[in-house]
């Protein structure tokens, strides 16, 4: 039995093309991904810089430099150090629920603007920090900014993009995340060489640059037609916006679908309560499982702590930062490839292929470290290069699959009436498990050692099976016609058919 493949027969193509207006609007909004990626990359780099450790985490620096009895895997084990990294995601989790209300009641544009402004304040505070509490409070402000932007930007991109290009346009968010990570790694590599020891301040403060672009750019962003109808019921204004962003006069078919979706959404006063209903069960499961699986790939072990991980296996400070630059560049290239092929190959094939690639490379890394790196030993240059190569293969697998698609799929599957709530759940679950993994990774590295790679590799096997069995294909399906994919899926039609029949009979 072929499972998971469901191409809806009821889908239809809207008129329109990818206009320059849409392209520029989405480019500005996608800068929200740059600030997210910059923070991911910058935190791992500065926590491996010796002047930063001396100022804020002297006990970690002492263990790294002077304690020859402690295990390689435990030198960076500090709850305060991990709190510096993970506090952002706890703040982002809480902010995402506030952002859900703002996005629904006041529009996608305002949430993007609020996210950029909060991130700008956090960057200034982090760069000027003189104690660890100021440092962490700056991280909290950064988290508020990311909570708003990650909630609103994927929704904005998926609503603005024509359905046939939605995969590529929404994947631009993850591409920008990759650019942010690479930029952060390059800046870390450069500022680490500043002899006076203040390079970490430049690294943290430079986050203000993409935040300024997003904040100023958001002022000029147009609102999506979906949001215009949802907030004002002004069909004529929404039609004019549709004509502008699609580049054609005849947009009546798409407008009718938006109006009908809005009519349904008006009957839903409590989207968080309604998303729990049985007829939304597939979307609820995906909004929880996809961001959870995205995090248990172990990618943030690489993103947050790549320099620390490379130092653990014997690289020097400069070599560790340079290795992080290499993995960041590979992530960008493969995410760009994903953008080019996702609307041709489809979501399922990329997720399954990427999952196999990630699980195999993680297993091999675990095996080599288990066999060749002792508690006080050091890998030879040859084995260290092999591990770096395998980690690059792993990052490539993530960049082409779970990286961009972990944001794309949730942004396109929710009906309008639960869209802001569904995206908030997605962001909240993502941030919750990012926080948990970020806060526990150094402890897990200390206790599980090489077994950590087997742990994450096992989860990748589980999630690949989940995709094969339970995720239908969404390629090319108009966003307001997405309900049909669940009706034609071998498993989900058993869950929702009765509810849908009752709904249709009531109408």
UniProtKB/TrEMBL annotation:
| Tagged with keyword Membrane | yes
* Coarse class of the protein's main subcellular location: membrane
Q: Which CDD domains match?
A: MFS_STP
Alphabetized, the UniProt keywords read: Membrane, Sugar transport, Symport, Transmembrane, Transmembrane helix, Transport
Q: Which GO terms describe its molecular function?
A: monosaccharide transmembrane transporter activity; symporter activity
Please give the InterPro entries that the UniProt record associates with this protein.
MFS_dom, MFS_STP/MST-like_plant, MFS_sugar_transport-like, MFS_trans_sf, STP/PLT_plant, Sugar/inositol_transpt, Sugar_transporter_CS
Pfam (any one)? Sugar_tr
Major facilitator superfamily (MFS) profile domain location is: 25-475
Where do the TM regions start and end? Answer: 18-38, 80-103, 110-130, 136-157, 169-187, 199-221, 284-308, 320-342, 349-371, 383-409, 421-444, 450-471
Q: Which domain of life is it from?
A: Eukaryota
Can the keyword Calcium be found in this entry's annotation?
Answer: no
Classification via PANTHER family:
SOLUTE CARRIER FAMILY 2, FACILITATED GLUCOSE TRANSPORTER, SUGAR TRANSPORT PROTEIN 3
Q: Give the protein family.
A: Belongs to the major facilitator superfamily. Phosphate:H(+) symporter (TC 2.A.1.9) family. Belongs to the major facilitator superfamily. Sugar transporter (TC 2.A.1.1) family.
Q: What NCBIfam families does the database record attribute to this sequence?
A: SP (TIGR00879)
Report what the protein is called: Secondary carrier transporter
Query: Which organism was this protein described from?
Result: Lithospermum erythrorhizon
The organism's taxonomic lineage, starting at the top: Eukaryota, Viridiplantae, Streptophyta, Embryophyta, Tracheophyta
